[in-house]
Amino acid sequence: MIKPPDTFTTARLRARVPRVGDAAAAFQAYANDPEVTRFLTWKPHERIETLAVFLLGSIINWENGKGPFNWMLSPLDSDAIIGSIGVTIADGKAMFGYVLARSHWGRGLMPEALGWLVGWSLAQPEIFRAYAFCDVENAASARVMEKAGMAREGVLRRWHTCPTISPEPRDCVMFAKVR
Ligand SMILES: CC(C)(COP(=O)(O)OP(=O)(O)OC[C@H]1O[C@@H](n2cnc3c(N)ncnc32)[C@H](O)[C@@H]1OP(=O)(O)O)[C@@H](O)C(=O)NCCC(=O)NCCS
User: Fold this and answer.
1) Which residue from 34, 65, 66, 84 has the highest number of Cβ atoms inside 10 Å of its Cβ?
2) Mean pLDDT in each 10-residue stretch from start to end of the chain (179 residues)?
3) Is 139 in the pocket of ligand 1 (CB under 6 A)?
4) Which residue from 144, 160, 164, 171 has its CB within 8 A of the most atoms of ligand 1, so it is best to mutate?
5) What pLDDT does residue 61 have?
6) What pLDDT, on the 0 to 100 scale, is given for residue 1?
7) Which of 71, 96, 102, 110 to mutate to test the pocket of ligand 1 (most atoms within 8 A of CB)?
8) Range 7-178: architecture per CATH
9) CA 46 to ligand 1 centroid distance, Å
């Protein structure tokens, strides 16, 4: 079983394992923002407590060593929670998901975090494919994947649901880097 490092840093970000006490900060920064969750698989949290329960689940996933492995993201020079990134590792593949507070969009931060994780993943002897997908309308996320070194592979029709938009499954674009 591969377990990623519980912290890592990039030029401007620090990633660490979540704490239940992060719930209020993450709620305020991004998790209750419908603009942020528009293309995500979860609706905005309406209460801090539901996010705390999710974070507890993430901590347990780290402890059992199976993942998915999620990190909270902060600027290097502060303890503020500004986003989160995660990886699911299975069958020689690493799949990523990520979210950033709206106030930090457009500064190239997520490509930095994702690029680090893509590099780490493909440096593991057991992992051959690093991939992620986004809604066909999520142009910012598609660009993040490109900037992290992944290549567009194609459209997966009716692949995921974005409950903030509609209960119906929607089309996605798949990106990957392989070795
Ligand atoms: C997607 C997300 C992580 C991007 O992170 P970020 O750190 O702001 O990314 P960047 O700063 O690299 O900016 C996004 C890139 O997309 C481009 N972009 C943004 N909106 C765009 C649009 N509507 N059309 C075309 N390009 C767009 C930007 O110009 C930028 O590319 P550039 O550097 O070549 O100019 C962030 O917007 C976010 O958290 N969104 C909500 C959650 C989400 O959708 N997560 C991904 C789920 S798959």
Assistant:
1) 84
2) 96 98 98 98 98 98 97 97 98 98 98 98 98 98 98 98 97 98
3) yes
4) 144
5) 98
6) 84
7) 110
8) 3-Layer(aba) Sandwich (3.40)
9) 24
